[in-house]
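Two folds, back to back.
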Amino acid sequence: MPSFVPPPSSDGTIVAPKVHCEACRVEWSLPEITMAFQPIIDLDRSEVYAYEALVRPIGGGTAADVLGQITPEMRYAFDQLCRVTAIRNASRLGMDTLLSINFLPNAVYQPAACLRKTFEAAAKANFPLHHLMFEVTENEPARDVGHLQGIFAEYKRHGMITAIDDFGAGHSGLNMLADFQPDLLKIDMALTRAISHDPVRYEITKAIVGLCRTLHISVVAEGVETIEEAVTLRELGVRLFQGYLFARPMVDRLAGAPLDIIDTVRDAHARRLLESPVAPGAPTARPAAG
């Protein structure tokens, strides 16, 4: 985990950057939101590595119920609201792991200015900046690669962890990874789902994991729902998992590491290694074409 490098100050406290943009001055009537937290599990350590904050409407509902109310003009204010809400709620629940927050690259205008409320929320909640991880989704195309590189550089400068979310199911793919290398890459469920019996997904995911290993990027497998998927991904070298197999998102609660599921995956992994020492987990039959 990177060390915390706070912005310069005379007394060691967190100081927001003294820069602004026009978007900071516009006030919008935004929907009332809360956050559900879903854990990312470290299988090797049998513990929660991080919690991803997922927006939800107050009183119940889905993320789509909230996002459907957000216009393009409201994106900056909504992005800021999500950050502040996630940090505040995580602190209230006593979170002591990484907190992963999604951000929309086209909603961040001036990276230093847009971090102002993040610093203020972290200081007010006494939440350490080096426990923050920001995920950029591949599902939204970044209009300006240089701008996105600047955002990542600013986050890293302050000791925050950076991640690419939904890798393999978005607009940029390897082009995005070539332009900037995050600390962590999250492989989308479109690739991990049914990987235990899909040779094509297996080989693609194997190549992504190998590439990340070469680039010193940690990997999270998203959307894992079955023991078979988890075992196959573990054999490929993945140790960080997120999905319904381990825990569903929860509002006002933090799910712990499911030790029974972790033990089951480990035992199944060990058995498969003994049974197939040459190519563990690799599907043996390619689906018929047509």
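---
second:
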Amino acid sequence: MAGVSRLQYTTEARLIRVMCSGRVDLEFVLRAFSNGMDGVFIGGCRLNECNYITHGNYHALNMVLLCKKIMEHIGLNPDRLRIEFMSSAEGILFAEVMGAFGNKVKELGPLGKSEGIDQNELKSKLAEITKLVPYIKVVKNEKLASRLENPEEYDQLFTKDEIDRLLSEVISYYIDPEKCQACMTCAKRCPAEAILSAKNQIHVIDQEKCIKCGTCFEVCPPKFGAVTKISGEPVPPPIPEEKRTIVRKSKERKLNDQGERDKE
């Protein structure tokens, strides 16, 4: 309605349409800031008036509440992110909200500058958090799916201490070379293809690709128990490629027998 009615609002805004506000992922917001956007606004249908049974606008709300706390953690002003709920017929309200948000962002100034964060440092922080998005969503899945009816509860959904602890005690996974039997179960189930594997080769998790979902930990056969969960500590270096070959006991026995015959 704002466009049809030719209502004026900030010209710096670039609109991106999605089927539902719930489609706006945490990674999208972080990417926008990483690309130099000074502010991100999300507009969704009014709560409990969603066109879909999923009520994606509640997910969008929870995502924004989470993202604001993450922004505080890395030193960004959370006012650079805003979400509002309105109907498509409320063009005047949309124009007013966009105008107010545009003025707020102008007041805050360029991203990182008013916060006193170096651009390279900011990009590095955003890249680090973006990499953790799948992990964050797994750990906070229950809260992200909640439906808060009372706006007074918004500030309490995620706390600063909770987010600081979440990002400082990140869980990593490591395959113990002494226990791995190269069954390839974890490699086949890994959604990020982060496990380097081959027949009769000790498997290794590529920590750069790993999204910390815990699938490898869950599917590793209990009789092996090769996948270790590590929290708040550095992951041991991977075993060198030339030492990854597994010599089965039967094969080792044959090699020993062959060696004995050669001596005779």
